[in-house]
Records
---
Amino acid sequence: MAHPAESAFITACRGDRPDHVPVWFMRQAGRSLPEYRKVREGVPMLASCFDTDLVVEITMQPVRRYGVDAAIFFSDIVVPLKAIGVDLDIVAGTGPVVAEPVRSRAQVDTLRDLVADDVLPITAAVEALVTELGPTPLIGFAGAPFTLASYLVEGGPSRDHRRTKQLMYGDPDLWHALLGRIAQIAGQFLRLQVQAGASAIQLFDSWAGALSPADYRTYVKPHSEAVLASVADLGVPRIHFGVGTGELLVDMRSAGADVVGVDWRVPLDDAIRRLGPGAVVQGNLDPTTLFGPTDVVHAKAAEVVAAGAAAAGHVFNLGHGVLPDTDPDALARLVDFVHAQPVPSA
């Protein structure tokens, strides 16, 4: 049997040319699938993330339906915080909500290390998935320090990240203490996933696009770098993705990313030029394109595939996650279309 290390996805992540352009979708596990909604009915989000059998089933659903080249582990970026005892919940229609937003060093000091016993149902799911997936790679993931800090400081999602930046500028020592703790916890979570069998990891920085390049380098990059460094010895590809991060791509790569995720706001060929020689990219079809006519979707996908030829390696993906109302059949057609495209020569 083939091994995940020989898959098209891992081959592309390592900067080589597989026999077809690999494709997977952020948020493919759940969201738009009717079978996902059925198994999640009546089960709170965080409860589902700690249910081994449910995690396995939800992770496998898009692999069965679409034949994607990688599975993304079903979880949420706040799971490691919940696992160490942070009082938070994921509220439908809102997102993560923290009961006591971080305002002091004493609160930061309560953020203890993550240990294996905290996430036993999760690592059990990884182990089961690796067996069930066979040659298909499993991607583990974690939230990046800035995004998790924003939730902890704001108490929930924020449009302007006012309190986050207020802390960042007003008390940089506390800020760096907070992000340092989060970086350690995120790194511990990623290591456990890889040790359980994940073939690659992705670090999500959903809100980093709210930062200027100078602020990113000063207040955030060292901590994202620490997370990515924490799994460097494990030898798996490390993907780094952020939303609205076109001006941060070079810094995100130099933070230790083997693969840089590109959102749809930056043309992929422009991103590749910015990143420079040897870059491996992931992306970047606009998720809303899937609501258009099939011929338009495929034409735009072909443009992404062609643009990706300039990179050392290219993993086809959306420029952010699958939207909840996306037609699963449109995604299935897109996978088939991308797989049918000739692999561009370098």
---
Amino acid sequence: MIKYNLLEGDIKKHMVRLALPNIGGMLAIILFNITDTFFVSKLGVKPLAAMGFTFPVVMVVGAFSSGISMGAGSILARAFGKQDTHLMKRIATDGILLAVLSVVFISSLGIITIPGLFKLLGAEADIIPLIKEYMIVWYGGVIFFIMPPVSDSCMRAIGDMRRPFYVMLVCAIGNFILDPIFIFNEFTIFGITIHGLNLGIKGAALATMIARGFGGLLSLSFVNFKYNLISFKYESPLELINSWRNILSIGIPGALIRLLPQLVRATLTKLTAVVGGTYAVAAIAAGSRIESFSQVISMAVGASLIPIMGQNFGAGNHDRVEESRKIILKISIIYGIILTILAIIFGKPLSLIFTKNQEVINYMNVYLIIMMTGSVGLNLYNWLSEGLVALGKAKLSLKINLFGSLFILIPLLLLGSRIGEFKGMLVGLILGQIILGITAEILVKKEINRTI
């Protein structure tokens, strides 16, 4: 198991080695989501709208799953650093059990609240039956949505990023193959007509969960047979409860951290409609798709910090934790400069992929240049938040993100929109991101130095 030892050697090289498979994994997730949207769009506007209404629910459940994953990964990485094999097995096994148990609650609550919840979200009466078709299947297979990220997180915590990438790739390929088979009556590929099951939007949900099921089984097999981390041998009856309490002490703040950016994004979209109208909203919708590709590398770097900082903190190598923080600061500045230059050069050409409307293109170009400039602060506080979770300081990370979202980002968004409308709003946002990044840098440095 020491194969992925991060307690010595060049930290920058470790980051690169860990980040590269994650980039592939993030791209696989993007492919997965694009596949669903593409095939469902062929069914018409109403099925596509029905899927759109499911996104907030999927996002919340995904945040919960990420929370458990972050909690298990943080504790397991530090246990790896201490070479506490028993604790590693307990956290991996009990984290997966917690994910499975939560499925019963989520599925039961979800199914009985479908009509009321989606009506509250604004779905019209003729859309709700389609939503119900999709969500009943989705809730029925939600175990395959919640459990695999937890087992994948356990592998990442010990420094194995390749196998979680294989899991995500299996999910993406499986979904791409199954979607047309389950959704359509027949479809043509390479000149060959293939007859499908004609299940419509329900077929999309089935394809998604079956593909995730394949990925989940693969992930569990790696955790059990490759790393022998599944064990039901308890030293005390209280160990299971203690494991769950420790995982959730990190996981609940972690889940909330995942949800806060959606609050900021919702505020941005609402203000955009006010200061710029339909063209501006269309511009940030398309611009955010381009922006998401830059975030692939950002998320990959963030994921590499859990094992690097967690293992070294667990082993008492606090000087290497501090070195990681310094590297994060440098990378955020360099990457931000690169993204800004790329946005200046390619902003308009990329905008032409989505639209020929000159007003939308102008808005998109402004959006991309300003947002890429602010990515320095955004990446810095996101990465430092991941680092704090790795150290077991999830509550401090939540405080930074909560305070930053409510008292820095959103107020500066509002102030900027009043002073300079569309451009002012974006400048206010990136100014807030930079302030929050600097604040996180100061607090994290102080926290690390306190342990050295």
